[in-house]
Design brief:
about 300 residues; alpha/beta; Arc Repressor Mutant, subunit A; D-Maltodextrin-Binding Protein, domain 2; seven-stranded mixed beta sheet; two-stranded antiparallel sheet; 11 helices
Length: about 300
């Protein structure tokens, strides 16, 4: 039995919907259904009444949730205490950031604040969106930094969490160049020669943004999925090796574009703008984080 299975059931109890619960848990609906079934197999009884709409828990499911909420709460509190004891000494902040941002945006951003706010210790953990959100919600970090798109939002309780926009970044299709410097694989492709498509796995944030771009395409496009990964940098390596076309944040591709190893593979209609956002819990009382947040608010206010 895995703790995430219980958290899946609690999400269903909260939302009364498999699809909505899947969004909150950052998994596909089919994956959520499999995990709930695995929990039911472990418990030995049905926990969800699948014949009702909205979805209801069975009497056994309600009992299991009542006990599980207390157990999960105790474990979360213990974990928070242990993490507090393990925090870095002195003025310190714990940051969870998306894999790409932790390599491209975060180092320069932290350097700026070291210069303006003096020295402080920072512990940075790179994570996917789901793990980053869980870390923020459960007190595993002071600050979460990630991408945002209005049609692929990160769902956080606005009564408990606040966010600030730190910047903007283009999200573009890229390909290796041919011998003339043109994209080897250029959108939209054709029926006769569909483009080999290097995709993000289905549950990733960037995969959802690519879906938004493709669903909004005015004309037809022709892609043939040939590879999947959950990290932009892995797709970048495959692009450089001439395996196909992928969508990447500009910062992840900039160095390779300047070196001529990668070129943009489509016009603006195939691109999107991503926000870079920081998130924190309203209840977080870490003085270093609060000082940093006030500085961020001033910076955003000045920019506007």
């Amino acid at each position: 039995m895995q703790l995430k299975w219980i958290e899946d059931l609690l999400a269903i109890d909260q939302t009364r919907s498999f699809s909505r619960a899947a969004e909150l848990r950052f998994v596909t609906q089919s994956a959520l259904s499999r995990r709930v079934k695995a929990l039911e197999d472990w418990v030995g009884v049905e926990l969800v009444d699948r014949g009702t709409y909205p979805v209801e828990l069975t009497s056994a499911g309600r009992r299991f949730c009542e006990q599980s909420k207390e157990t999960v709460g105790v474990l979360a509190e213990l974990r928070s205490e242990l993490r507090q004891e393990a925090k870095m000494p002195g003025r310190s902040i714990q940051i969870t950031a998306g894999h790409t941002l932790s390599l491209t945006f975060l180092p320069k951003w932290l350097q700026q604040f070291h210069q303006s706010s003096g020295d402080f210790n920072a512990r940075v953990v790179a994570a996917n969106v789901h793990d980053a959100v869980v870390a923020l919600e459960e007190g595993g970090c002071d600050l979460m930094i990630g991408y945002h798109h209005p049609l692929a939002p990160i769902l956080l309780d606005r009564d408990k969490f606040v966010s600030l926009t730190l910047g903007q970044e283009a999200f573009i299709p890229v390909s290796a160049p041919d011998q003339h410097g043109a994209p080897l694989f250029a959108l939209p492709g054709s029926t006769e020669a569909p483009l080999p498509y290097l995709a993000y796995t289905a549950t990733t944030f960037m995969g959802r943004v690519v879906d938004v771009i493709l669903n909004g395409a005015v004309g037809k496009y022709h892609l043939r999925s040939c590879y999947e990964a959950d990290m932009a940098m892995l797709l970048m390596k495959m692009v450089i090796e001439r395996y196909g076309i992928a969508w990447l944040p500009l910062s992840a591709a900039q160095e390779e574009i300047e070196a001529g190893r990668v070129v943009q593979a489509g016009g603006d209609e195939w691109c999107a703008q991503l926000e870079i956002r920081s998130y924190r819990a309203i209840s977080n009382n870490n003085p270093t984080m609060q000082e940093l947040w006030r500085s961020l608010e001033q910076q955003v206010s000045s920019a506007n």
